[in-house]
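G.,

No rush on this.
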Amino acid sequence: MAQKIIDLDTQHPTWVGDLFPVAFGKCNDNFTELYAATGGLTAMGGKNMLINCGIPINQRGFAGGALAAGVYGYDRWKAGIGGCNVTINATTGVFTHTSGPLQQIVEAPPLAWGQPLTISVENPSGSIAVSVGGTTATITSGSGRRGVTITPSGSGNMTVQLTATGVTYSRPQLERGSAATPFDVRWYALELLLCQRYYEKSYNDTVKPGTAGAGDGRCTVLVTGLPATAHIWGQSVDFRVSKRANPSITTYSHATGAVGMARDSSVNGDVPTAISAPGQAGFLWYASAAGSPASVNLECHWVADAEL
């Protein structure tokens, strides 16, 4: 039965059915009907199962070009077997795919295995071999949105791979159904959050991890008035986004960019860090201050990596 709500500005009643006109043949919690009626999972992040397909988010500061097998460049994109060579234009989002397989692993997508899926790109200048969950096809060259529909079989995480030689294209999209629809544009803030489930850093968005002298956003432990004895100091860090699994943590001296270090600014030198209890929500880092100072100023940046 439809429910009535009241508009607090006009005091006029509105039936929920007017706002959400979904007609079910029977009341049996049929998710397939709900999925179709709401246009898929758009309200929960968009129809595109791939992440970072427009203007690229590039937390690692990848310059574009060659990537060794299994190595990530732009967020969520890595090289497949044998490596690849890909550059994404930071202004237009156009992929220049020079060679090799480019992969993205979709984390256990719901309502995808055993169902028709369409993978597409815009304006491919040549043929692109695609593999979705191990099922292969080819996107042919042409103008506009070009795609192909396949039905992968399997379960769990789904590996999506695009292989091309000397081809340009833009806006890859993997969606449920048998038609290639217009590209699903997400707000930058949402796209960044989706990326940060797998990779997050303390540096500003455009600063490459390990950049010397990158002070903004660094973690700091500052204590004064201490007795002249040796000290070990730690700091807990909370992630902005819960990770998909316990991540690996790497620290960097903000002053020199040295890996596995914090800056002991009391003596202007780097000291090694240790990591404790990394979890999906955060971690603890700690370090020993040099000597037996009466004040401590330990500072570092960090990267959390939970990529698939």
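When you get to it, here's the other one too:
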Amino acid sequence: MTVQEVDPAQFGLPSSKLAVAADTLVAEVSAPLVYNHCVRAYLYARELAAAQGLRADEDYDDELLYLSCLLHDLGATDYANGDQRFEVDGADAAAQFLRNEGVDEKRVQTVWNAVALHTSDGIAHRFGTVEALMQMGTGADIAGLRRELLPDGFADRVHAVWPRDDLGYVFGRMLAEQVRDNPAKGSWFSFPGQLCQLYFPAHAPTTWFDAVEDAGWNDRPVGIGSRRAAAARPAELASLFAQYFNAGDLEALMSLYEPAALLFPTPGSAQSGTQAIQDSLGAMIDSGAKIELQTRRVHVVGDLALISNDATVTGAAPSGDPVISTSTEIARRGSDGSWRYVIDDPYFSQ
């Protein structure tokens, strides 16, 4: 249902000539669930403003808030689907519409700011009250942010007129399709780019660590609270393990394992947890054993890796003969960007 079809007394929506023109445009070019979202964003923004003691047309320009909310997703429509992020395409289209309607440039700029910044947490509020409230309204409707501040039963009344139609998921797919069809609309670290990787996972989503590793500068991950070398890639675990083991550096060796990791120090014998693994590796080091590891194969998906190594341990067997095995490990990338063992079984292939 369009704004013009609703009883004005029910929600008290703006009815100026400019407001009606904006409503007409958005209703014509938007899918119903997008149009409904834009109207709800305004209604929630207005209520959240009141909950904070802000008064319409005294503390903020209510018509500008309405225009910002109503026009904020033009970039998600064919009407304004260009080669920029949908927020910027939408901001440009909203600004052009307002200029065509003879709106003062200062007011146009406020709407442009609000639309362009509405997905940027921690920024919009520094530009002005309208920009801040518009982001609150969209955040409430998409992610339920501050919904507890809305009057009891208000959202139910709004939804009865402007239903959600699974907005959060359907709208996310719409934005993801834009980036899939035109990668210029969303790099991997942008909001639209992340949506595309979620909805169309040609591979695991790209992370900050992936970007740093692919930069070509050979930056090294550093363990939290430590300057000890860590594994920037799963294949580096083997060389670091051999280095630390053969140096007898048990503390460094343990930094390569997650706290709840699982180790098989002998065939079929599992040790779990930091202390148990430390005791097992410490006993091997104390025996005078030395190890060589040659990586055979590594498979990586997202933050998980399956690793296989050829392992040769000398100085451990009573006979003096080297112990040769093919190891299998599972590693995971941690919050500091380095890789650590989750499961370490040197005898899995036996």
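The mean pLDDT is 92. The CA atoms of residues 326 and 349 lie 6 Å apart.

Enjoy the weekend,
O.
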